[in-house]
Amino acid sequence: MTLHLGNPLLDIEISVKSAGYLWSHGVISDELLDMQRTVCNETRYVLEYIRNETSNECSKVWELRTEEMGNDTVKDDILLPTCVSSNAAGQLLALGNLATMHEKKVGKVADPCLTEWIDLYLNKPEVQKALHANTTYLPYAWEICSGPLQYRLDDVAINIIPLLPDILKEHIPILLFSGDQDSKLPLTQTRKIAKLLARDLKLVAFDKYGPWYDGLQIGGWSKSFGGLREGKNVTYLTFATVRGAAHEVPFTSPSQHFLEHF
């Protein structure tokens, strides 16, 4: 058994910092990168936001960040095109065209209209009947992530990293993986946490950083760390990126998500 943690929020002091990632992808300017390093970084902004205490300094930095990123940039997937179709027929046509025009070597481009298409499909009466859903005939349409469940924002600040060594000590390997198009919890920060864990637990690198394969194509890049157990080398921790994947790797890159060879 291996514990898979994808694009994980493990420590708010590390995981959410995305300015360097965005800058390296050309999404924000040199000036904004400097402001996020010296005036207000992501950690400070998130903590102020959940406490409803957003400072003027952070507000100004985030206004500039929103302006530079643009309204059509999705933080979950900074390379995702915008869904421009406004009806079911148009969406279906757009999906077909996109699948043809933007085909990748590893799978296909993340579908910009997928959420809208799912909404349309799951609101069909015959589909809801087959799923035994909406048996009370609610007077409004179903939406993704709708309902009474809410995040406990105070929990965002909990540092999860100290729990990971306890899991590893039970001989349960951990795979930390990140879709490389996610800017919410970017791969740069997940890699940093993997490196810190390996150092603190005195794990050694078992291989050089390099590509892993999804069939005949590169699925991403990885590095594994481990140690001796009963005289044998055992992998305890692996960091991997998932090429072309977004914040929710199984949603955007299902074939690569299984990472079978890990």
Automatic annotation (TrEMBL):
One of its GO terms (biological process) is proteolysis. InterPro entries: AB_hydrolase_fold, Peptidase_S10. Gene3D superfamilies: alpha/beta hydrolase. Pfam families: Peptidase_S10 (PF00450). Coiled coil: none annotated. One of its GO terms (molecular function) is serine-type carboxypeptidase activity. It comes from the Eukaryota. Belongs to the peptidase S10 family. This is Serine carboxypeptidase-like 45.
